[in-house]
Amino acid sequence: MRTQLFIDGGFVDAHAGRTLASIDPATEAVLGMAAAGDKADIDRAVAAAVRAFAGDWRRTTGAQRAVLLRRIAAAIASEREALARLEVQDNGKPLAEAQWDVDDAAACFQFYADLADELDDARSTDIALPDQRFESRARQEPIGPCGLIVPWNYPLLMAAWKVAPALAAGCTAVLKPSEVTPFSAIRLAEICAEAGLPPGVLNVVTGFGHEAGAALVAHPDIRKIAFTGSVPTGQRVMRAAAEGTRPVSLELGGKSAIIVFDDVDIDHAIAWIMFGIFWNQGQVCSATSRLIVERSIAPRLTDRLIEAASAIPIGSGLEPATRLGPLVSREQYGKVLGFIERARNGAALVAGGGRPAHLARGFFLEPTIFADVPVDHEVWIEEIFGPVLAMRTFAAESEAIQLANDSRFGLAAAVLTADTVRADRVAEALDAGIVWINCSQPTFVEAPWGGRKHSGFGRELGRWGLAGYLDVKQITRYRSAAAWDWYRS
Length: 489
Ligand code: NAD
Fold this sequence. Notes:
22 strands; seven-stranded mixed β-sheet; 489 residues; binds nicotinamide-adenine-dinucleotide; Aldehyde Dehydrogenase, Chain A, domain 1; globular; six-stranded mixed β-sheet; alpha/beta; 2 domains; Aldehyde Dehydrogenase, Chain A, domain 2
């Protein structure tokens, strides 16, 4: 397991020699020590990204970059087991989910390889001008060296969502993974180098957010910042971007609603509700953590939900039967337990609420459900980022929509109903960047991803993800043989 920074094509220690411990959340043992980079390391990494961008990389064709991206995709796929196990040990998630992450990361590089290929033909667009003496075109160019900052809940996948389109566009990058889960990003840099990515094109600086992260977003040579993380940090990042007048994309938190009408198939509904909140231990930005259920089926659905939640196998992510692993860190564990303790006062705890009796060590938490949650209770309002579901009932469709939209977040929402006309009507009324009908959470690299309101702005994935790393230049030519004389014309 590599533990150093990756700068300019090689592994180096943090210049100050400092390290940080990454903890295996299932055992609470130290998984490894990663370099704790700071401003001086960011300066080195950005300088390498600037040199690489000014050199040959920006002049590569999309087809040349596509070859590299496909090699990276293949290398990730061929290392599926090792990468997935590394992710489980660093993050805690069940192995099957980590394997999906690896598959999705490989698919992301493959998808952006195809778009890089297409970019050669789509590079320039002619613009029809009314004045025939001029001709004009819009040329797409890579935006430049980018700062990419990712969180700990999908360490490899969130890195792939940013690195793949950035490289496809012809940008260079400095990637700053979370200090809580640094290792898969370091390995990703090594995979990219082994695939032939030139030195300096992708640099990885592990370190703390307030040091390495803050230095990256403040660096004057960074031309774009792509950030995924919490709302308060996103707001800090945006302030720093404003100082440098730099574009920024923000993928932030959520408190997404799942509306369930009484015409649903209960088994189908239970499966998606459970997946929507307990997948990745609920540490999912788009988790459908607010359940809004039609009053007539609420008692039946609640009983079934409690039964299903109580039966989830909890344990180390490395055990094949596990469906719910530990939370990522002691800090996150304490934060989620704090929400649960406060919610006991004001909401009805109907499932879970504490450490599973059979697990004495590790940051394990039972799947937890609160019913009859008041709309002004923090458990209804705030992102908990843990396996905690808050429930309310509704009587009319308009009430369900109003409850779902009454949030400062707007990342995702889901509606479950057998009535297709109603499903489309509700989907259009929901104020969120992503709406799922009769499902929750499926994510496709082809489709746009991002939120509204405090959930951020800008879109990742699909063509929208690539557009975020491209700038457009207008090139206009005066093609008339006649001399131009503004004074006489
Ligand atoms: P966080 O905001 O604490 O940290 C995110 C990243 O920012 C980390 O790499 C951290 O080191 C860095 N950072 C911290 N302070 C910084 C600063 N001052 N300047 C620059 N960088 C700094 O978030 P987290 O706890 O790692 O992740 C959980 C959050 O991420 C949740 O709110 C979740 O909803 C959100 N998230 C959103 C999406 C999405 O697509 N919308 C996806 C995954 C996670």
